[in-house]
C-alpha cells in the first residue's frame, strides 16, 4: 500500500492506492473530542438520571457523586479547550494562510440537497457529485459547533452560578441547567443515531470507516464519495493515473 504525500517521487505517486484525508493534528483532535464527549455523556447523563438504576450504578462505580461531578468538570474544561483550539486553528488557516474553507456551506450544497432528493425518489438517474465535504457532513459539523457553544456556556454557568446570580436572577441558572441537559440529550442522540449510522452502519461503510484514525482514504472511495476533490487533485497532478474506467463523472 502506498500513500501519497508532499515530496514523493513520481513513481510512488503512480503506485498510490490511498490518499491522505486527515493529518495527524486532525486525527488527534478527533480522539480528544471523542474521548471527552463519551466521558461527559456518561458522567452528565448519570447525574441527570441519578434516580435510575443505571445512573446510580455509574455514580457508585465512579466513587460517588462528588467524583462524578469532578470528572465531568475536568473533562468539560478539556472539551472546551479542544473546541477553542479547533476554532482558533481553523480561523488562522482560513484568514491567515488563506486555506479554502471546506466546511462553509455554499449554494451548491443547497442544490445537492435537492439533487439527492430527486435521485432518492427516482426523478434523476445520477446522484450529486461531492467535493471534500458533502452537505450532510457540513450540517453535522455546524450542528456540533453550535451545540458545543450552548453546552459550554451553560456548563460554565452551572460551574460558577454565583457569577450569574451576582447580576441576574437565579432562574437563569435553572434555565441553564435545562438547556445543558436537553442539549446534551440531543447531542448524544445525534451522535448515536446520525453519526454512528454515517461512519459505522451506512451501506458500503459497515463495519466502520477508519479514515479518521488512519488518516487514509482509498482511491476507490475518493472516486465514489469525493469525485470533485479527486478531479481537482488529478488536474493539479497530485492524484496519479486512475485505473481504467475509474475517472470521476464530474459536475
Ligand atoms: C458534550 C458535552 C457535555 C455533555 C453531554 C454534558 C452533559 C451534562 C448533563 C446531562 C448534565 C446534567 C444536567 C441536569 O442535571 O439536568 C450536566 C451537568 C453539568 N455539566 Fe455538563 N455536559 C457536557 C459538557 C459540559 C461542559 C463543557 C461543562 C463545563 C465547561 C459542563 C459542566 C457541567 C456542570 C458544572 C454540570 C452540573 C453538575 C455539577 O455541578 O457538576 N458540561 N452535563
Question: What would your notes on this structure say?
Answer:
With 251 residues, the protein is an all-alpha fold. It contains 11 helices and 2 strands, in the order αβααααααααβαα. α4 packs across α6. The protein is elongated. The two termini are 30 Å apart. The structure holds protoporphyrin IX containing FE. Protoporphyrin IX containing FE binds next to α2, α4, α6 and α8.
Main beta-sheet strand count, sense and barrel state: 2 strands, antiparallel
Spans of 5+ residues with little confidence (pLDDT < 50)? 6-15
- Please tally the helical runs, counting DSSP H or I stretches of 4 or more residues: 11
Query: What value does the average pLDDT take?
Result: 91
Shape: elongated
Number of strands: 2
Structural class: mainly alpha
Small-molecule binders here are: protoporphyrin IX containing FE
**Which strands sit side by side, in order, in the main sheet?**
1-2
Termini separation comes to 30 Å
Oligomer class: single chain
Report the radius of gyration as a whole number of Å: 22 Å
Query: Roughly what percent helix?
Result: 55-70%
The helix/strand order is HEHHHHHHHHEHH
Beta-strand residue fraction: under 5%
Amino acid at each position: 500500500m502506498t500513500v501519497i504525500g508532499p515530496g514523493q517521487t513520481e513513481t510512488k505517486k503512480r503506485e498510490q492506492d490511498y490518499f491522505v484525508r486527515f493529518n495527524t493534528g486532525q486525527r488527534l483532535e478527533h480522539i480528544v473530542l471523542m474521548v471527552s464527549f463519551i466521558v461527559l455523556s456518561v458522567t452528565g447523563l448519570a447525574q441527570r438520571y441519578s434516580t435510575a438504576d443505571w445512573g446510580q450504578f455509574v455514580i457508585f462505580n465512579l466513587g460517588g457523586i462528588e467524583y462524578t461531578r469532578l470528572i465531568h468538570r475536568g473533562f468539560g474544561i478539556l472539551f472546551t479547550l479542544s473546541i477553542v483550539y479547533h476554532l482558533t486553528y481553523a480561523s488562522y488557516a482560513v484568514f491567515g494562510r488563506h486555506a479554502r474553507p471546506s466546511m462553509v456551506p455554499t449554494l451548491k450544497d443547497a442544490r445537492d440537497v435537492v439533487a439527492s432528493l430527486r435521485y432518492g425518489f427516482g426523478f434523476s438517474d445520477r446522484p450529486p457529485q461531492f467535493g471534500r465535504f458533502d452537505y450532510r457532513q457540513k450540517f453535522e459539523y455546524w450542528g456540533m459547533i453550535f451545540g458545543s457553544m450552548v453546552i459550554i456556556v451553560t456548563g460554565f454557568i452551572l460551574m460558577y452560578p454565583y457569577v450569574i446570580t451576582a447580576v441576574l436572577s437565579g432562574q437563569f441558572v435553572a434555565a441553564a441547567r435545562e438547556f445543558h441537559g436537553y442539549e446534551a440529550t440531543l447531542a448524544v442522540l445525534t451522535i448515536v443515531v446520525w453519526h454512528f449510522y454515517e461512519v459505522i452502519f451506512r451501506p458500503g461503510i459497515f463495519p466502520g470507516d477508519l479514515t479518521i484514525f488512519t488518516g487514509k482514504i482509498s482511491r476507490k472511495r475518493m472516486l465514489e464519495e469525493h469525485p470533485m476533490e479527486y478531479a481537482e487533485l488529478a488536474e493539479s497532478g497530485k492524484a496519479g493515473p486512475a485505473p481504467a474506467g475509474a475517472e470521476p463523472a464530474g459536475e
